[in-house]
Specification:
- The chain has 364 residues and is of the alpha+beta class.
- It is built from ten helices and 16 strands.
- It has a four-stranded antiparallel sheet with strand order 2-1-3-4, covered by helices on one side. It has a four-stranded antiparallel sheet with strand order 9-8-10-11. It has a three-stranded antiparallel sheet with strand order 6-5-7.
- A hairpin with a 6-residue loop joins strand 3 and strand 4.
- Helix 5 packs across helix 7 and helix 6 packs across helix 7.
- It is elongated, with a radius of gyration of 25 Å.
- InterPro entries: N2O_reductase_NosL.
């Protein structure tokens, strides 16, 4: 009897879960969705990788001046692009919540902050063709009415807060994604990606993983977009938020995947946004700081794959690869020589060198 009851509860849980997914307000039937992209990314948002039909009622499209079209699952993801590329965008459309048709976003009426769930944001944003329709929705579900420019500004103003929440949610997903990637994907496909959607499209186009369902593909894409999500922070170089690279002046905490460190005997530490700048400092310390190399206690670099702090003098470095750091062409560090050699082959590197083999002319 207990086994039967347990099975019933299990099956009810699955059915209830599926009903919840089907009842998500943003979701529509594929036949009712208009997708404007034609490439392998046509079904997902290029920014976050989320399925466009699942979040269709908050979709936005952007046509760029060069004719390229993109579709985003939310105003949040559009805002991510708009903040840096507004001058490249020709026009923007949004899905009308009622008709499900794409309409001119500049003429739409947005209900912001209703009781309906948001997409990529704790605050929901739904658009309507007419103010009458927006008022009716507001009366039933709450919120305030804004035009497109006002709604976009509100979204941009809370990008940092929303992204902090999203980053926290992505950590366990990325940890799973790392395990999946290491066991079911081509490890040579690691590279720098500007978005989760870009990573997902790259995996699809290059057939990098075998037998992944949509959730597994999303997890791998999140991990590849930002391996820091899955990294053990306790094993990384601990960078003060206000630490600036003494060579280029950039804030190093913005680039933890590339961080390098020089510790001095007097307890002072220098932080760098890459091995290249660290070595520039090492070869000419008095140019950047009044001390000699004899005062150096320890030098650390960030292993490219594990992101762990590694003794710089015991590491191996790939020179001339097609992977670039914050300051362009970089010496890519590895704690393992075999991994360095494999990376060199996979990424068209010119040479693997030890610390003692790095010469000043290599970094100019």
């Amino acid at each position: 009897m207990k086994k039967v009851l347990g099975l019933f509860i299990f099956l009810f849980g699955i059915i209830f879960s599926n009903l919840n997914a089907a009842e998500m307000f943003q979701t529509v039937e594929p036949k009712d969705a208009t997708l404007v992209k034609t490439d392998s990314s046509k079904e997902f948002c290029n920014v976050c990788g989320m399925h466009l039909t699942k979040y269709y009622k908050t979709n936005h499209t952007a046509e760029f001046k060069n004719g390229h079209k993109e579709q985003y699952c939310s105003l949040h993801c559009l805002a991510e692009v708009h903040k840096n590329h507004a001058q490249k965008i020709k026009n923007i459309q949004v899905v009308d919540t009622n008709s499900l048709k794409l309409i001119d976003a500049s003429k739409a009426f947005y209900v912001v902050g209703s009781s309906k769930e948001g997409t990529m944001s704790s605050v929901s944003e739904y658009a309507f063709l007419t103010k009458v329709e927006a008022e009716k929705f507001k009366k039933e579900f709450g919120g305030e009415i804004y035009n497109f420019e006002e709604a976009l500004k509100l979204s941009k103003d809370k990008l940092t807060k929303d992204n902090d929440i999203l980053d926290e949610k992505r950590v366990p997903i990325a940890i799973k994604g790392k395990k999946i990637f290491e066991s079911m994907c081509d490890g040579t496909q690691i590279k720098e990606f500007n978005s989760i959607g870009e990573a997902k499209q790259y995996l699809i186009d290059n057939n990098s993983c075998k037998n992944l369902d949509s959730s597994m593909l999303q997890a791998v894409s999140i991990y590849l977009y930002n391996p820091l999500y899955a990294a053990d922070k306790s094993k990384m170089i601990n960078i003060p938020k206000d630490a600036k690279c003494p060579v280029c002046g950039m804030f190093v905490s913005k680039f933890p995947k590339w961080a390098a460190q020089i510790q001095l005997q007097d307890g002072h530490d220098h932080y760098f946004d890459g091995v290249k700048d660290m070595m520039k400092f090492y070869f000419n310390p008095t140019k950047y700081h009044a001390h000699s190399n004899e005062q150096i206690l320890q030098m650390n670099v960030t292993d490219y794959y594990s992101l762990e702090s590694t003794d710089a003098k015991k590491a191996y470095y790939v020179i001339g690869s097609n992977v670039y750091g914050p300051m362009g062409e970089e010496l890519i560090p590895f704690k393992n020589e075999d991994e360095a050699k494999k990376f060199m082959t996979d990424h068209f590197g010119k040479k693997v060198v030890s610390f003692d083999e790095i010469k000043e002319e290599m970094i100019k």
